[in-house]
Sequence to fold (231 residues):
Amino acid sequence: MNRKQRTELLSRRAALTKLAAGGALGLLGAGGLMGYMQKALAAGSLPATPGIHHVKGPVMVDTTRASIGLVIRPGQTVTTGPGAEAVYILGSDAFVQRANSKVSFNDNTGAEVMRVITGTILSVFGKGKRQLVTNTATIGIRGTACYIEAEATRTYFCLCYGEAEITPSGDPKQKTTIRTEHHDHPIYINASGDKIMAPAQVINHTDQELVMLENLVGRWPAFYGKGGSKY
Fold:
């Protein structure tokens, strides 16, 4: 290990230990993803390999009960039951999928597609095009991070940082592009009504989680080191 690599390792250890001390969420604790991250840092195995890295409760990949190390492939669906949670990597992307959620992945002419059928997921993406689909919107992004809560008639969408082109299913003419640096423009995308897209607040996801996910794939969030975080 050269000097630059050692400095980066120590920086990651210090940052992740600080986050764990904050106790933001269960997955950051010693028995959750934080414990895994500390072991991975000690072993020098970050960025991590694709597959599932944290499981709590009933999690299925298609008809297979999820376990640590199981690889998720294009065309498969990840389903979490009550009280469940899964952290996993696909290529250069990493995800925290919450309870009672169903998310499928496939490839469509070179643009990777993630369909959030129902529920909640926090995602960080590497370079390249991605298309996110919910019941009320199609969202095109490149190398960014976002948080989605998908319901039958409404989608909550927070572009944590980056750029996204949002096309509401209820009125495609209202297609819009948003750019954010730090959770600047959360919105609700409704299936119908006078306000297809309405302003929202930042809810139910944290910068600590984004730091953890980006570190899993060998990156830092865009906001990191730019004056701290408040979420």
In short: The chain has a mean pLDDT of 87.
